[in-house]
UniProtKB/TrEMBL annotation:
Originating species: Sphingobacterium thalpophilum
Taxonomic superkingdom: Bacteria
UniProt cross-references to NCBIfam families, sorted A to Z: tRNA_MNMC2
Domain MnmC-like methyltransferase: 128-219
InterPro entries: MnmC-like_methylTransf (IPR008471), SAM-dependent_MTases_sf (IPR029063), tRNA_MNMC2 (IPR047785)
Record field: transmembrane: none
Taxonomy of the source species: Bacteria, Pseudomonadati, Bacteroidota, Sphingobacteriia, Sphingobacteriales
Protein name in the entry: tRNA (5-methylaminomethyl-2-thiouridine)(34)-methyltransferase MnmD
Amino acid sequence: MDFVTTGDGSKTLYNAAIGECYHSRHGAVQESRHVFVKMGLEHYVQQTGTGDIAVLEVGFGTGLNLLQTGEYILDKPLQVDYVGIEGFPLPLSTIAATGYDESVDSGLWSAYLEGYEKALEGPIQLNAGLHLHIAHSLLMDFQSDRQFDVVYFDAFAAVHQPEMWNDAALGHVAQFVRSGGVFVTYAITGNLKRSMKSLGFKIEKAPGAPGKREMLRATRI
């Protein structure tokens, strides 16, 4: 694992075994804010007016998307219950070296570092508006009796991890999305659109983060 400085000055990890970075080289933080927070969480809140949101992330990684979610809700009357699926959790020392404290509230960052390993064991409360559980599980082994409002699908790209993007994997995720729930990801391909449509989602082409013209947003019908 090596750190790479991205286009917005924030860092990401390069995973040599996979052959890809955890986040966009064009800007890790700005991709997280745009794809997952703005196009996913913020969109869902605007559409529904709800203040209690359950978020499921596929590919928790460094926790960048969690941190940007926490930053977004800090000054808002929102409660987020966040579950991240991660088959290969990073060590705390790697998390601490990301430098993501530069883009989030200091209290949130401290709570995340203090709670990271605890969250791998069970649900914890990071602050007044944010609960976290990191499910140490491969995607296809993940089970829950819960339904989620927003899904952040942040797996490595299909060219490197095709098993995360096939019909079986997407169908497994879809069962956890409530009616009206939103699924967002940085990618958009013909196969992805067809799969999500066949699973009962309405497909949208949304503007992509820097470096990508479009991304996918899908709403469960």
